[in-house]
Amino acid sequence: MLASRNKRRKHREPGFRPKIRPGLKIRTKLLLLVLLLLAIPWMGYKSVREMENFLLEGQQQALELTAQGIASLLGNRRDLFALAAGVPEVLGRPFYIVPQDLIQALPVDAAAELWAAAIGELTDFSGFGLFECNKDYQPDSFALRHGLGAHENSIFSFFDVTDDSVIFRDPEKIALDHNDQLRMTVQDKAGATQRYLLTAQAEGRLSIYRMKRNWREPETGEALREIVAVMELTSWGYAIKLRIPGAYLGTGSRLKFELVDVDDKRDRKIEKIISTEPDPFRYDTRRIRLMTPELAKLIQPLYLPEGNITIWDRYFRLRAELGSIFPEDARLRQLRLENPSFLDRVELAGISLYEWVFRDPEGGDSDIPDDSSREDRSLLQKVLAKGQSETSRRRYGDARLIVTAVPIWAQGEIEGAILIKQSGNKLLALQYGTLRRFTVLFLGVFLFLTLAILIFSSRLTYRVGKLQRETELATTPEGRLLKDRIVAGARASDELGNLTRSISLMLQNLGHYTRYLEKLPDTLAHELHNPLNVVNSSLENLQYQHAELTDDKYLQRARNGLNRLRSIITSLTEAVNLKDALIQGSEQFERFDFAALVTNCVEGYQAANPEHRFLVQVFPGTLLIDGAPDRLAQLLDKLVDNAIEFGKKDGLITVTLHRTDTQAQLTVANQGSLLPEEIAERLFDPMVSSGKDARKTHLGLGLYIVRLVADFHGGTVQARNRRGLDGVEVTVTLPRPDRDTRLD
Amino acid sequence: MAKVIAIVEDDLDQRENYADVLSSHGYEVRCYADKADAEEGFRTALPDLALLDIMLGEDMDGGFDLCMELRNRSPALPIIFLTARDSDTDRISSQRMTAWDYITKPVSLEFLVARVHALLKIAEQLKSQESEPPVSLLEVDQLELDENSMSVRWCGEVVSLTLTEFWIVESLARNPGHVKTYDVLNDVTRQGLVERNTINGYIRRIRNKFRLLDPAFDRIQTVHGTGYKWAKDLG
């Protein structure tokens, strides 16, 4: 039984609702398609990268050209690279204030004005970055103007100091760091460092001591004699005139001054220190430098923004330097951010958030190490060894550095090299700005497109779904047409509208065809009636005129045949007439006892068909339903006819009337052959029959009438093989009136 | 003088068969194949009874047109529709044109003759009714049946029935309370073998006609599976 059921179910499938198959829906597909748009930012990124490369290339070529220009400018100038031409670089000094070549030696006793005039331009050190001081520093309380000069083998250094309170050394105290003083650091070629302290107890000659690293205790108690310094009080502070013998420093040495200010006579604490080292972050005092003033002056006009030009001799000594790869405002910004105000903090938070989202390559400045001399050196080595120019691009985090080095020739020999470094950050900043704008724009477009496609696809899915639902509802699972047009979306002008109209048209055509098929038996019957009448009346006339033929067996058989033909034609028209009658509403519903009707009818069937046994199983009492009793009797007729026709001879035909609260269930079961699977679902359609007996009429209209009547009463009908598989049962389920309106 | 019967039927074989059997029963038969022929014939002389097919050749409702014309000229002329069309619409149309009977093909010639005979007799009676009192009157409660004129009154009002319907009502009313089985009613209709459903159709139409006059009419009761009976008046 179970196996048979499964088989049946399997058989049902083609006629049933289409299964939902797993897979991507239109909306998902379109959204996946939108994801393809992500290729645009990728492409944009790639092209910006290409652009970056292109721009960097251009910048690099410009740098190379510059380098070559400088190299040819400096070519064959052996004099510039002579050792004697070099002055040891004053440590911490921008090269553009290299010592002035003095016309004559300056006596330390000469007036400060004389020194100032002779040395010429002084560098003002009251700016940023060179101080150790507190926040309320005022330039008129402590400032330094400083200049250097050289003559023959001496260095002359002049300090013009603004100081609102000059504190001399207290001779009673041993400590040397409790008064205004000048500190000098000298580093020789080998890297050995000497510290000298210049201090005074009164105006006049300064005492000079060699100091330990902490600047508190002298190495020896002896004052130095070779270096001479005189202090002279001025109306705004004091001046120091200093002479250092060149031999004392040696070639390639470096020099740094720090001016220390003490203001309070009592606690004698160091308030401020001004250093002549302009870039304390970058310079290592161990580097060998030999500055050539001539060279420096030559390259001075070639200043490159965010670029650093250095000229080296073949012994890897720096001869001249111009510019810095750091932007000019970088230090300012750094200083400001070290002591942030509230507003600065707010701005900082905003900036850091912004940079977290779009990482700003300008932050890449900090990625460049203060000292990249090792890489520079290896590049220089290559250039000086091979005599060919070299270019490299370096990447420090987000920062880019373009470095190019070109050899300088003199009479066929490599005299030195020029090394130019320039940061690519300006370009990168430009590029990242472009990327950022592009990203924002793209995100906007992407979101908009996604939304638009989402809306569009939702609408499309909704429309397709509606069409699908309505199409499914247009026919029953058995393939019967329920309606002949699709209303939803039929007015749309797009392809979906066309599809809807096509389906509508198809349904209409199907409807016409179905109606034609349903009318066909009637038309056929009508056409058959006339010839049938001819035969019938002719036979009667024959019999009338030849009375002796009345009992003729052939006449009898002809008459039997006629009767059969007639009953066929009647059953053909019956269904159509019934359908017309039901549609026209000529049937009136009345409330009647269905149980009595069934019992009476079955009695009649038993009387008419003695060769079959009938069994009625009806619940005692009345079973009132609303309906057309004639039509329901007709329905029962058909069910019983069917049971008789397909049941085996002497088989038992059981008519059961069962009731529930809401339904009356009529079942007619017969013993005999089973339902063929292939027609099980269509059994209640017109002209479907499983009969194979040639002598009987099998038009298959009986169960069609059953269905029509059941439908008309709002009921259902179902045929299946009986439990035990010894026959077939057909069950008609009819609704009962509401409990509150019925009387039983 | 022999009664004249007009037969309008487009099918030659059927027409001749009707003509043969009616002539052999002593009627004078005039046959027409189409509407134009018949109209011309009727203009010359009216028959005593007309046997009309509804569909005449291409003319779908030719019989109805002829019926209207005949009725206009003679209100009391018996008209029988003999047709292959068996729809309620057609039956109602024929009723509206006061045809006396409506028989569907195939028809048994024996019964056809019986009907023709009966209708002519009724026509005869109607003509002489003014002078003679009703002879055969069956009264059952509010129902009056005049077997001669074959007229039916319910509560004194005329119910317009066809011949077949009259025979069914008469059969039921003659024995109130007795069940007339389908087989009995089959014989009563005098049409040869008739399906149950055809009987049901007749009963339905009869009930409808009574209910037009008396919406509460419920005398004709169904005995399901068996037949019908005329309920006795319980009041």
What count of structural domains of chain B? 2
| Rounded radius of gyration of chain A (Å) | 58 Å
**Main beta sheet of chain B, described?**
5 strands, parallel
Tell me the helix content of chain A: 25-40%
| N-to-C span of chain B | 50 Å
Radius of gyration of chain B: 18 Å
Q: Per CATH, which architecture of the domain at 89-290 in chain A?
A: Sandwich
Shape descriptor of chain B reads globular
Low-pLDDT regions of chain B: none
Strand content of chain A: 15-25%
Helix count, DSSP H or I runs of 4 or more residues of chain B: 8
Biggest interface, and residues per chain? A-B, 41 and 33 residues
Quaternary = heterodimer
Provide the CATH topology of the domain at 89-290 in chain A. Immunoglobulin-like
Beta strand % of chain B: 15-25%
Mean pLDDT of chain A: 77
Overview of this protein structure:
The complex is a heterodimer of chains A (744) and B (235). In chain A, strands 2, 3, 5, 6, 9, 11 and 12 form a seven-stranded mixed sheet that branches. Residues 1-16, 88-97, 278-288, 329-339 and 360-364 of chain A have low confidence and may be disordered. Among the domains of chain A are: 89-290, Immunoglobulin-like; 587-735, 2-Layer Sandwich (Heat Shock Protein 90), CATH 3.30.565.10. Helix content of chain A is 40%, strand content 23%. The relative contact order of chain A is 0.08. The two termini of chain A are 38 Å apart. Chain B has two domains: 4-128, Response regulator (Rossmann fold, 3-Layer(aba) Sandwich), CATH 3.40.50.2300; 137-230, Winged helix-like DNA-binding domain superfamily/Winged helix DNA-binding domain (Arc Repressor Mutant, subunit A, Orthogonal Bundle), CATH 1.10.10.10. The mean pLDDT of chain B is 84.
